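Reading group handout, session on sequence-to-structure problems. Before we discuss, look at one worked example. The prompt was deliberately terse, the way you'd type it at a terminal:

> structure Pseudouridine synthase

The input record follows.
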Amino acid sequence: MNIRSIRPNKVTIPAKNGIGASQIALPEGVWKTYEEFLTERFSVLSEKEWRQRILNGEVLYADGNPVLPLSPYRAGQKLYYYRYLPNEDNIPFQESILYQDDWLVVADKPHFLPVTPSGKYVRETLLVRLKAKLGIDTLTPIHRIDRETAGLVLFSVKPEGRNLYQRLFRENFVSKHYEAIAAYRNDLVLPMRYKCRLEQGDTFMRMQVVPGKSNTETEIRILERHGQFAHYYLKPVTGKKHQLRIQMCSLEIPILNDRIYPVHLPEAVTPQMRQEEYKYPLQLVAKSIRFTDPISGKPRYFESRYSLDLNNIESKINRTSLFTHE
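And the output record:
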């Protein structure tokens, strides 16, 4: 690939403390000031709080100049603002950087840390942490793994290389494997290539197995067995949402400490609930990834430092999420 032929995208609004600026188009309306509009549109903050953010230079015009307090509202333009939550909880687990060059960053993500901002997570996400740590505003995830899953996540450094790396995942030019601990079934013949059809489930959070032509495929084999549990090697051929979690559950060997399958447990919303959740991480790790680098043409192989251990497995079980095959 000739990199000279790729046109870079200009970044006009810089990140602040690792948080990229969000954009909003201003509609016609009767608002007198930007504070009034922002308060109505994003009512989680009061007008006083929006005014303070404007004073702090956290609301900008499209040209990057800061909005001044009590400026008259003008429709038809765009504003940029920095989204953060005033009382966002700290996630007490740290990521590490396994590799970095001019085009690629490979991070090892801990359990419980989201990859990108969403919902109640903004500052405490892998993307924002890495942007703040590395000072790279253009950093973009090439793929995602679940908040509950630990392991490898790749990031594109330059906008002009982003699509080249993302194409590897879109067109299945990446070989990756996960490892998991789950219940052991002596009537399940392994190794196997498990195929099924996944579609959106009854809620946004859940997928479900449905009849029809398969759209997912995973190689499953056992690395080690200890009593009624086993250490599994999982190699997905496809990349559907929650693919490994729902496939293992449909085989009646759900991954240990899964809070979504087979039963969607309540979200941990209090400090006490979060501390309890932290004791029992999902026993799933994005362990390795292999591909040919589209920029350099070199073979790449990365392996997570996170590992799973069947020793003392009884102490790692969250009994409220345990489900074994009868």
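Points for discussion. First: Confidence is low (pLDDT under 50) at residues 1-11, 322-326. Second: The radius of gyration is 23 Å.
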